[in-house]
Amino acid sequence: MVPGANHLKALFTRRQRGLRWEILVSLGLLMFGGVAFMGITALKAAERAVVIQEVESLTQITRSVKETIALAWDEGARNPDYLNSMVSRMVEGMGLSDLVIADADGRIIANTRSESIGTVSTDPGLERALNLRRMVMSEEFSGQKAYRPAGSWSFSSPLFSGEKLVGAFSISYPMENVGVTFRVHRKIILSFALADAFVIILFGSWMIGRVAIRPLVRISEGAAALAAGDYSSRVKVKGPREIVALSESFNSMAEKIESAVQKQEEHLEALQKANRDLRAAQQEAMRSEKLASVGRFSAGIAHEIGNPLSAILGYASILLKDARDEEEREYLGYIEKETERIQRIIRGLLDFSRPGEAEIEELDVNTIVQSTLDLVRPQDIFRNVSIELAFTEDLPTVRGDRNLLCQALINVFVNGAQAMDGMGELTVASSLRKLQKGEGVVSRRRAVDRRDSDFLALRQDIPGNRQMGEGDLVVSISVRDSGPGIPADQLGRIFDPFFSTKEPGEGTGLGLSITFGIIQAHRGRVWAKSEEGKGTELIIDLPIETHGNVTEREDHGTQKSPGSG
Fold first, then answer.
1. What is the pTM for the complete model shown?
2. Which of 61, 200, 214, 377 is 20 to 30 Å from 400 at the Cα level?
3. How far is CA 340 from CA 187, 304, 307, 347, 504, in A?
4. pLDDT of 146-195, one tens digit each?
5. How far apart are CA 66 and CA 72, in angstroms?
6. Interacting residues of 534 by C-beta distance below 8 A, sequence separation 6+
7. Which CATH entry fits the domain spanning 359-438+468-547: 3.40.50.1820, 3.30.565.10, 3.10.290.10, 3.40.1280.10?
8. Residue 544: DSSP 8-state
């Protein structure tokens, strides 16, 4: 920066004016303008009256001059020098600016300027008087009114001899003395206006300072203290009721601010905790977004990976059949087992991203649940799991795809067994119940789900199924495990794609997401409730067919079939 720039900037920066200055200057200007306006208006009226009076006087003088010239006209006609002599005497004696006498043709016959005698007059007033045959008046000036310095008024009148027009004359009267008088009057009025404004400013400065400025300064100091953090600052001033009301309003505002600050300090810790929770939620959202991106990418390449995996699995099976060495068979077994696991993951991705056409039929829920359990019981994960059944008999049928519902139940059963690490009790129940208030709304995409991708790709309408509503009867399937439960902050995310509480490599996080999509496709809903240390319960609600007397079957006995895997 150029040296001294700050100094120059401060020098030329306009200093902010105070309230006293603004009021006094405005008041002074208004008073000065008012007095000046009234004075000038009065002066104009007086000037007009003087001018009218002066014009009347000059008119009378012009008539006298006309009579004098008319009496001397015959003599002047015989002796032109006589008229010139008379003109010179009249100009000097009466203090005229000029006097011109012309004949009926406008030719000058007498004038104080001898060089103009014999020439045709160019005075428009004289020409008008000859044409109109009456007295006319005109102003002659250069940039100024006639009654100001260097101005004059000209009177022109025709001359008659009997009834005959014989000539005309033009007489000019100087108005400089009138202009001088007017200028003096204007100076007097201006002086009075300035003196009046000065007195008002001087007295008003003291009065405004006592009545308004000092109380406002106290209020301003109190506001500055309040802004600096002194919330106990209060002001007490005397003056007009508006100033007193302003101080009371300030005190009331200060009390409210002090109270608000105290509440803010009390809630500060809660806000800090909420901020920490928000950061944690943002980090979790970023993690979910990354997982979703990975899922979309994985679903896109799953098909291309599936073909090479099938080839690897086929060749591994051939080699395993022909292998004789025990160690070689063991390694080939590992290859086959891990390839099958990869193939299951790929199949899950494909099922999640590209559902097939549903085959809709009327289904008995208990039969579907029982057949699905028969499929999963032989798996190693269910070897040490005790399965207890609590079916309600004679349930109404539901409309849906047998294979899709079976797939959804397999995911739920396997998820429960994995939650117990393959050891515990799995309770599976079915029932008919009526939806309560708030339960009839089908679960929709959550606000945090991306709009440019379909996490619920399996959501397809099942023909004939209607939207569930409050008071409707539904068939419920409950699957409750005896595992450790799910933390409350994670319970709402268990149906998100690729969300898993398992260790890396032990699950894809797609099972419950696929189940969620299948149940929504059947116009049902799947939800969970859990308590840490006591296990988790997943409930599937499916709408029933409306034909048949289903309302009479709302309450039934249950048949328990304990069993073990």
1. 0.38
2. 377
3. 115, 16, 13, 10, 18
4. 444 456 778 888 888 878 888 888 888 777 666 677 777 777 777 777 77
5. 10
6. 482, 485
7. 3.30.565.10
8. P
